[in-house]
Automatic annotation (TrEMBL):
The lineage of its organism: Bacteria, Pseudomonadati, Myxococcota, Polyangia, Polyangiales. GO terms for biological process: proteolysis. Belongs to the peptidase S33 family. Residues 30-264 form the AB hydrolase-1 domain. Keywords: Hydrolase. Pfam families: Abhydrolase_1 (PF00561). Gene3D superfamilies: alpha/beta hydrolase (3.40.50.1820). The keyword Hydrolase applies. It comes from the Bacteria. This is Hydrolase. InterPro entries: AB_hydrolase, AB_hydrolase_1, AB_hydrolase_fold, Peptidase_S33. GO terms for molecular function: peptidase activity.
Length: 280
């Protein structure tokens, strides 16, 4: 399904009911909007996790503009401010009130920007495997620890000039993102627009810094991280938590999980999120 939000149509899919029967009444469940990583990929990375979460919530998969099956728009609109505005416009178009917004990796950057720009809009915020600022020095250290000098060198070249080095990064570095076996054919299944990822990595990713903005967040926030994550390192997770209002933030790290924390620690992460949602 696609819905018009401003200048683009955004693709989305829904799993799980908003209202479920409970005795003589219908009980309302939270609506969780899943913001995928990338940019340039799509929501399909979320489907196994989202299907499990749909047991206690209505789950909405959303493809960002320029990504997956949403309209591409143009490079001048591939930025965190616009992607954040799209989340708000998407909710307005579908009359979703007080959503729980879960952003993973790049999607977590969008979720941070959205919650800071519209602090009274989200009901709750969940940030997984994400950062408030790029710290290449930390990243390269973990890549070298997990994959040796070759992995660190490929990552260094990719973040300096992404497009010529994209395929090397996918071949050498992407497997180090996870500690669990990847789902067969998962990458082939995704609709990829590498130019969107290249544009963001070469541009705004080099300079974005959301730490000061996070002081404006007004909703309960959960931060999940993996201790073996080469992209969003444990130090990055600590910085993210420290930037959020202390009275609103909860955090949990998983010692044997990488960047794919929702896969590497699926049962523990789901249990933590269910508790955060107040789900039975």
């Amino acid at each position: 399904m696609r819905v018009q939000t401003g200048d683009v149509r955004l693709f989305f899919d829904v799993e799980g009911a908003k209202l479920v029967p409970e005795g003589p009444a219908m009980r309302e469940r939270p609506t969780v909007i899943l913001l995928h990583g990338g940019p340039g990929s799509d929501h399909t990375e979320f489907v196994p996790f989202g299907s499990a979460l749909a047991e206690v919530a209505q789950v909405v998969y959303l493809d960002h503009r320029g990504c997956g099956r949403s309209d591409r728009s143009g490079p001048e609109r591939w930025n965190l401010e616009t992607w954040a505005d799209d989340v708000r416009a998407f909710c307005d178009a579908l009359e979703i009130e007080r959503p729980v917004v879960l952003g993973n990796s790049f999607g977590g950057m969008v979720a941070q920007a959205y919650a800071a720009r519209y602090p009274d809009h989200p009901g709750k915020l969940i940030l997984t495997s994400t950062t408030a600022k790029l710290r290449l020095d930390r990243m390269l250290h973990v890549f070298e620890r997990l994959g040796g000098a070759q992995a660190a060198d490929v990552a260094r070249r990719f973040f300096a000039d992404p497009m010529p080095n994209f395929h090397d990064y996918i071949r050498v570095c992407l497997p180090l993102y996870r500690q669990s076996p990847p789902e067969e054919d998962a990458l082939r299944r995704a609709v990829l627009h590498l130019d969107v990822g290249g544009h963001f990595v070469a541009g705004e990713m080099q300079t974005y810094d959301l730490r000061a903005d996070l002081a404006r967040v007004r909703c309960p926030t959960l931060v999940l991280s993996g201790d073996l994550d080469p992209f969003a390192t444990t130090a990055d997770a600590r910085d993210l938590v420290a930037a959020l209002p202390r009275e609103l933030v909860q955090a949990r790290s998983f010692p044997r999980a990488g960047h794919a924390v929702l896969d590497d620690a699926r049962d523990e992460a789901l249990a933590t999120i269910r508790e955060f949602l107040g789900a039975p």
